[in-house]
């Protein structure tokens, strides 16, 4: 007679027969408080399983060394090891500056010991899926890495070309400005963009100083502005300041403080609380208001002065600022000369219809007039409407070619977005043009500007504008061609 331990009760084997004990005996013979005895045998290695992030639960099986896992993966995937030279295709990765790491979050791990083993087919399927995911991840990261590398190379080429151009401007062009500024070579360099390091100097020379403003005159105007600020009572509200500005142009000094904080709001450079250029901008606008009390301060001036401050010293920026605003087009807009502004709009429409007849007809059909979008562009010289670096490129050519280039740039923008605009109605066109996309591509824009021809019936911009002014003096409708 011998005992045999079954699944839930004890059985007695006697003479080849098996008899089950009674239920009561089975109850007393059952080990209710027996501790679980660990099997001294080593747990068999399970089939591979999945692990996504997190920690691996405790296992009773042997733990693989990470280096060993990496080595096994390299062997399976055919990657180069110490004794395995890379293939030509694999050697492409050596050109990258880093090793893709996105696959480390998904690792093929052994299934925990407390789970049943997977069938061999399922394990093989999971292994194949894992390898496909790893391959896709590495392919995606390789593509992204190549894209970033190309962007870095393009940026390095751009910086190198800017450095070379700056050297050319400093050593060859600026010392011989009067003889070289009109040469074909310099005009080509000008179109590509003036290097930031010499931009201020080039702007000053191109704009000139017809008003003969000196640094001493700037200091006198600034001192007067500071006296006015000290004696001027603080207005009760912004509306009161604007009303005061209409009755007394010098009273618009108070509007300057309200407007500076709105200048390039995404940048802290002109912030009232600690902005490094706040005082400079305040000084230039205040000095100009006292220099030209007949014009005073007009909203939009702060953007023009801010761009000059970023490229010139305070006094030189004031000189360029005053001379820029003294140009006929800027004076017409900032003095709100309605009849002359309409003349400019009429001249713009002449070249609009000449270059973009389809879009011009669409605008006419929807009654979208130039004043809706041109006023903001001209008032701020595109410094508010375009990204700052692109606006500076527009300024480069504007300082060379004058007011004509402002309207040519407007036509270039319309040409750039004409496919989008022709599908819009009045409301959406007005919204789009008064708030252009944040990222306007520089090179495509200048390509479209270059495609604009500023001639109409063998007449240039200045001739068309002059003819329209004469028509206005004779009483002809200004907006009629």
The CATH superfamily of the domain at 332-475 is known as Ypt/Rab-GAP domain of gyp1p, domain 3
- What characterizes the major β-sheet? 3 strands, antiparallel
CATH domain topology of the domain at 332-475: Cyclin A, domain 1
CATH class of the domain at 332-475: Mainly Alpha
Percentage of residues in DSSP E strands? 5-15%
**Gyration radius, rounded:** 39 Å
GO molecular function, one term: GTPase activator activity
Keywords: Coiled coil
Organism: Myripristis murdjan (pinecone soldierfish)
Coiled coil: 120-162
Protein architecture, described:
Keywords: Coiled coil. This is TBC1 domain family member 14. With 481 residues, the chain is mainly alpha-helical. Among the domains are: 198-232 and 249-326, Helicase, Ruva Protein, domain 3; 332-475, Cyclin A, domain 1 (Orthogonal Bundle). Helix content is 57%, strand content 6%. The protein has 22 helices and seven strands. It has a three-stranded antiparallel beta sheet, with no helix packed on it. Strand 6 (455-456) and strand 7 (459-460) form a beta hairpin. Helix 8 crosses helix 9 (253-260). The longest helix is centred in the N-terminal third of the chain and has 54 residues, at 120-173. It is extended, with a radius of gyration of 39 Å. The N and C termini lie far apart (124 Å).
In brief:
This protein has 22 helices and 7 strands.
List the topology elements:
Blueprint: E1 2-5, E2 10-14, E3 17-20, H1 23-29, E4 48-52, H2 66-77, E5 106-110, H3 120-173, H4 177-180, H5 184-192, H6 196-207, H7 215-231, H8 238-247, H9 253-260, H10 278-291, H11 301-309, H12 314-325, H13 328-334, H14 338-355, H15 357-365, H16 371-379, H17 388-401, H18 403-416, H19 418-421, H20 426-434, H21 442-450, E6 455-456, E7 459-460, H22 461-473
Antiparallel strand pairs: 1-2, 2-3, 4-5, 6-7
Helix pairs in contact: 6-17, 7-10, 8-9, 9-10, 10-11, 10-12, 11-12, 14-15, 14-22, 17-18, 18-21
């Amino acid at each position: 007679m011998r005992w045999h331990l079954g699944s839930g009760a004890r059985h007695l084997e006697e003479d080849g027969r098996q008899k089950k004990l009674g239920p009561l005996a089975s109850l007393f013979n059952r080990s209710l408080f027996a501790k679980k005895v660990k099997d001294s045998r080593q747990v068999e290695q399970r089939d591979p399983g999945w692990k996504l992030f997190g920690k691996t639960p405790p296992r009773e099986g042997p733990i693989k060394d990470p280096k060993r896992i990496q080595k096994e993966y390299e062997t399976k995937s055919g990657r180069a090891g110490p004794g395995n030279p890379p293939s030509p295709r694999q050697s492409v990765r050596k050109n990258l500056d880093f090793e893709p790491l996105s696959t480390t979050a998904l690792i093929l791990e052994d299934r925990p010991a407390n789970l049943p083993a997977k069938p061999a087919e399922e394990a093989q399927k999971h292994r194949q899926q894992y390898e496909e995911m790893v391959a896709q991840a590495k392919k995606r990261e390789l593509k992204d890495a190549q894209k970033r590398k190309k962007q870095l190379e393009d940026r390095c080429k751009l910086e190198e070309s800017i450095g070379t151009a700056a050297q050319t401007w400093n050593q060859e062009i600026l010392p011989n400005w009067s003889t070289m500024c009109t040469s074909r070579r310099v005009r080509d360099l000008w179109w590509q963009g003036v290097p930031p390091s010499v931009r201020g100097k080039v702007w000053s020379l191109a704009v000139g100083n017809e008003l003969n403003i000196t640094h001493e005159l700037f200091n006198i105007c600034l001192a007067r502005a500071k006296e006015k600020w000290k004696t001027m009572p603080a207005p009760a509200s912004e509306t009161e300041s604007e009303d005061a500005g209409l009755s007394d142009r010098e009273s618009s000094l108070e509007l300057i403080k309200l407007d500076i904080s709105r200048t390039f709001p995404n940048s802290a450079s002109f912030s009232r609380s600690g902005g490094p250029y706040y005082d400079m901008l305040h000084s230039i606008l205040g000095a100009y208001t006292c220099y030209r009390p007949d014009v005073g301060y007009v909203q939009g001036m702060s953007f023009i002065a801010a761009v000059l401050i970023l490229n010139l010293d305070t006094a030189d920026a004031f000189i360029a600022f005053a001379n820029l605003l003294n140009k006929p087009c800027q004076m017409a807009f900032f003095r709100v000369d309605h009849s002359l502004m309409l003349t400019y709009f009429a001249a713009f429409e002449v070249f609009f219809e000449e270059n973009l007849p389809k879009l011009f007809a669409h605008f006419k059909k929807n009654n979208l007039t130039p004043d809706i979008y041109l006023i903001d562009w001209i008032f701020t010289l595109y410094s508010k409407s375009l990204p700052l670096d692109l606006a500076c490129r527009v300024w480069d050519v504007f300082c060379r070619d004058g007011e004509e280039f402002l309207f040519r740039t407007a036509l270039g923008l319309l040409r750039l977005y004409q496919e989008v605009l022709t599908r819009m109605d009045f409301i959406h066109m007005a919204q789009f043009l008064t708030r252009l996309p944040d990222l306007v591509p520089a090179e495509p824009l200048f390509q479209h500007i270059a495609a604009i021809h500023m001639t109409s019936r063998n007449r240039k911009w200045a001739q068309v504008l002059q003819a329209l002014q004469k028509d206005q003096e004779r009483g002809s409708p200004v907006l009629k061609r």
